Amino acid sequence: MRKFRSPKAGKERRPGRKSKHLIRNIVLTVFGLLFVGVGVIFFVAYYNIKGAIDSNTFVSTNIKKERNVDSVLSKGKPVSILLMGTDTGELGRNWVGRTDSMILVIINPKTKKTLLMSIPRDSMVSIPGYEYTFPQKINAAYEYPANGKGHPETSIKTVEKWLNVPIDFYGIVNMEALEQITNKAGGISVKSPLTFTFSEDTAHDYGNNLYTFTKGSTKYKYYKNGSTLTKTSNIMNGAAALAFTRMRYNDPLGDYGRTLRQRLVFEAIAKKATVLIPQIVNKKFLNSISKQGKTDLTFNDMVTLASNYRKALKNIKSDSVQGTDYEYSGISYQVVASKEKQRVTNKIRKFLGLKKAKSGPLYASKVTNGVVIGDDSSTETDDSTATYSSSTQQTYTTPATTYSSSSVQPTAPTTDTTTTNNNTGGQ
């Protein structure tokens, strides 16, 4: 890991309390599943859904869009949605957290394909309008200006300038939504790509509410007090799904490996869509789930997406911006090289049916405080991506790296004293 030291930059600048980075990309794609993929069900439950969306969910950014979004939707052109996850309300938090997950979704109804482009939360940027705080992580953009409120417009501007691509809409969801959706679906079954142990209480491999997952198996174990076996199951409920998607520190692939596990969960939820949709179409649940998300998609926009764009969700291509670890003044970042940024820009613009164009500035905006971090050509990556469709099984690989059976040696409890259980109730 390259280390940079500067006497002027000893602290990571952010206007709020420290976050433990527990938000996961899976929540974002679930949000898309609910509001894009349910199709004609929207019309059947029109009044129930419209009331929940209009009263709880719609929040305008009050910024001028790069494109006329009404024209984009009415003409059936490819559309872009920046999906973000926040930790507000999770683990007792009631403050505005960072968007520790970001996925740019491109839905192309003409090619009937969808692109999910994951953006590493630690990507180093200079936030437009707040260049004096450089270096920042891209997940901090949501906190600016620092007035105790979330600002999706700042995140949108940062990503647009960084990659030189238009963003038509945004969606932001809270972690609690994933638990609710998974439980409503009756739980999911996911085969783990590696063996690991994770505690919801500590975010490490020790503590209460401890889960152990085994490579190649759908079976997991749950230890409520961290040592005594409480349950063994092949079906993940909401809490288990969160644990499975949260672990980062013991993953040999780091955040990239975690992102791939999140996609396994998304695919499992998507396969249960026929069960999930009838479960969510009731006023009480919709009012509850809609409070966990905000978007500038109106109800009519969602109806248009559901009716005219849903076929594109049957062929989903997944990719991720690839960066290199950099440590600056004791803080870890991901620096994305110019060549990689251009690859990502090219791919997104192609999905959008736009002409090729040069990617944005290396850090999204001009650096004004004198801090200098160069563009390292060694961070370049090829176009190696994880691709899947609704009818094929997701592979768990990343460029030039795969798991081995000895990759992770978790610290798992050994006391198995209670009766096993394959139900989804409880933890």
Can you walk through the features of this model?
The chain has 427 residues and is an alpha+beta fold. It has a domain of 293 residues: Nucleotidyltransferase, domain 5 (2-Layer Sandwich). The strands form four sheets. A six-stranded mixed beta sheet has the order 12-7-2-3-4-13, with helices on both faces. Strands 8-9-10-11 form a four-stranded antiparallel beta sheet, covered by helices on one side. The protein starts with a strand and ends in a 76-residue tail after the last helix. The N terminus and C terminus are likely disordered.
Give the count of helical stretches.
Answer: 12
Q: Could you state the order of secondary-structure elements as H and E?
A: EHHHHEEEEEHEHEEEEHHHHEHEEEH
Largest sheet: number of strands, sense, barrel closure: 6 strands, mixed
Amount of beta strand: 15-25%
Top CATH class of the domain at 2-186 and 272-379: Alpha Beta
Multimeric organization: single chain
Short description:
The protein is α+β, with helices and mostly antiparallel strands and 427 residues long.
Secondary structure layout:
Blueprint: E1 2-4, H1 25-36, H2 41-44, H3 46-57, H4 69-74, E2 79-86, E3 101-108, E4 113-118, E5 124-125, E6 136-137, H5 152-163, E7 169-174, H6 176-184, E8 196-199, E9 210-213, E10 220-223, E11 231-233, H7 238-246, H8 254-271, H9 273-280, H10 283-290, E12 293-295, H11 299-308, E13 316-320, E14 324-328, E15 331-335, H12 338-351
Parallel strand pairs: 1-14, 2-7, 4-13
Antiparallel strand pairs: 2-3, 3-4, 5-6, 7-12, 8-9, 9-10, 10-11, 14-15
Helix pairs in contact: 1-8, 3-10, 6-7, 7-8
